């Protein structure tokens, strides 16, 4: 009986649904295949760092098409590394048992033609067959045998608006004493002419008193002396102010010089920005020209009616059929090139191995509700960081062209190899 492995993290919220799928499938396909869960490798695994030492070499990323593409986020996430390891260990299990296996991920649902697809795969000469696939969303294509992958946006939670209450301000109670005092102040500020009986003050004669004069003189002298003392302090302050003013003028001059230099740098920056925008325009033109010509390199063919081969990149490792020969080839390629890109991209790339990438149509599995809740992209970043080398701008720019040429070359190679099995549907 064929072994069907479902890769699932122990701590994942999908685990219960996966266990339910295993029980239901074993009951439904009893005697034909056996479903079981394979515990996925995560960065928390006790041997994770050991695997990193053995199978990761940052310098090898320079050999990766994915690394030079516009869709690489500059490093292989540890969660992506763990995902690759899960598939890698199952490849080893396939070689060990020397029997074909099916590998599924825990975000799939089985379609009604699942068992028919398995029987067709077992009868075919193919070593690797995807049971689900889609054209990579980063590529434009005129082909339509498979869907183009686009992630659904998460629904934004509605923000509950809190009603704003209007509070009335109650005036304070009247204060009779305060009102009487206010009336008195108003009366004293009125014009004397308006008063009914203005006061009449008679002038009085004053006589000269020498004692009082001396006291006034002494107080006046003290007052003048105090003013003179304060004048000295004022002079000192004025002197310091003049010094500070001089220093300020010097700083102002230096600031003007720096402003002039800044203006020069701004001018140079504007020139560089203009050149950069010109380069970006050329890059866009190169890519647009490539996309316009891509139709010439897009090929597809069917073999044994259901097995689909194309020169366009097909993504996803949600589910696939694998023989021991195919597993051995993937293992050797991994150990030779190291883990340098996500597993589905590595398996699809003809640069690394000699395994035809076929997809069974109609797809016998589909994605379930968990597919858009990634356990890789949404996971918290662990302490381990897989540092990448510096990219080549030239390789990035011409990535699409080089990749298309390699995929087209591989298509013609396998199309010729399996020509006797071809269904007359080639485009």
Task: Please tag this protein with its features.
Spore Coat Polysaccharide Biosynthesis Protein SpsA, Chain A, nine-stranded mixed β-sheet, Glycosyltransferase family 25 (LPS biosynthesis protein) family protein, alpha+beta, 11% strand, 46% helix, single chain, coiled coil, 427 residues
Tell me the layout of helices and strands.
Blueprint: E1 2-8, H1 15-28, E2 33-39, H2 48-55, H3 65-68, H4 78-97, E3 101-105, E4 108-110, H5 114-123, E5 128-130, E6 134-135, H6 176-188, H7 210-293, E7 300-303, E8 307-310, E9 314-315, E10 319-322, H8 324-337, H9 343-348, E11 358-360, E12 365-367, H10 393-397, H11 399-417, E13 422-423
Helix pairs in contact: 4-8
Description:
The chain is an alpha+beta fold and 427 residues long. It has two domains: 2-142 and 298-421, Spore Coat Polysaccharide Biosynthesis Protein SpsA, Chain A (Alpha-Beta Complex), CATH 3.90.550; 210-297. 46% of the residues lie in helices and 11% in strands. The chain contains eleven helices and 13 strands. The two termini are 37 Å apart.
């Amino acid at each position: 009986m064929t072994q069907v492995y479902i890769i699932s993290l122990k701590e994942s919220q999908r685990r219960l649904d996966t266990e339910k799928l295993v029980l239901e499938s074993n009951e439904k396909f009893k005697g034909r295949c056996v479903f079981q869960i394979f515990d996925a490798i995560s960065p928390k695994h006790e041997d994770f760092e050991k695997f990193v030492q053995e199978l990761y070499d940052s310098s090898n990323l320079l050999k990766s098409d994915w690394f030079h593409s516009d869709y690489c986020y500059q490093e292989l996430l540890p969660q992506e590394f763990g995902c690759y390891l899960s598939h890698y260990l199952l490849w080893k299990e396939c070689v060990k048992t020397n029997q074909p296996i099916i590998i599924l991920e825990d975000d799939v649902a089985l379609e009604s033609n699942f068992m028919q697809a398995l029987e067709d795969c077992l009868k075919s000469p193919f070593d690797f067959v995807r049971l689900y696939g889609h054209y990579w969303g980063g590529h434009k294509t005129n082909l339509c045998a498979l869907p183009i992958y686009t992630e659904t946006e998460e629904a934004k939670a509605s923000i509950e608006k809190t009603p704003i209450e209007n509070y009335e301000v109650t005036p304070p109670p009247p204060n009779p004493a305060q009102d009487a005092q206010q009336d008195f102040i108003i009366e004293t500020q009125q014009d004397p002419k308006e008063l009914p009986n203005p006061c009449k003050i008679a002038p009085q004669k004053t006589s000269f008193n020498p004692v009082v004069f001396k006291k006034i003189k002494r107080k006046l002298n003290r007052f003048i002396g105090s003013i003179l003392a304060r004048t000295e302090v004022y002079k000192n302050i004025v002197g310091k102010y003049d010094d500070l003013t001089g220093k300020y003028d010097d700083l102002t001059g230096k600031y003007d010089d720096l402003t002039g230099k800044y203006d020069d740098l701004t001018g140079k920056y504007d020139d560089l920005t203009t050149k950069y925008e010109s380069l970006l325009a050329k890059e866009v033109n190169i890519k647009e020209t490539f996309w316009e010509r891509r139709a010439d390199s897009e090929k597809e063919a069917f073999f044994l009616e259901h097995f689909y081969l194309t020169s366009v990149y097909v993504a996803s490792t949600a589910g696939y059929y694998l023989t021991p020969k195919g597993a051995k080839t993937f293992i050797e390629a991994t150990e030779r090139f190291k883990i340098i890109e996500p597993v589905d991209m590595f398996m699809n790339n003809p640069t690394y191995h000699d395994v035809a990438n076929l997809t069974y149509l109609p797809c016998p599995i589909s994605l379930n509700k968990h597919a858009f809740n990634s356990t890789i992209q949404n996971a918290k970043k662990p302490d381990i960081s897989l540092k990448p080398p510096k990219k080549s701008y030239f390789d990035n720019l011409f990535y699409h062209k080089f990749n298309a040429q390699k995929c087209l070359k591989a298509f013609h190679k396998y199309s010729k190899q399996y020509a006797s099995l071809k269904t007359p549907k080639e485009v």
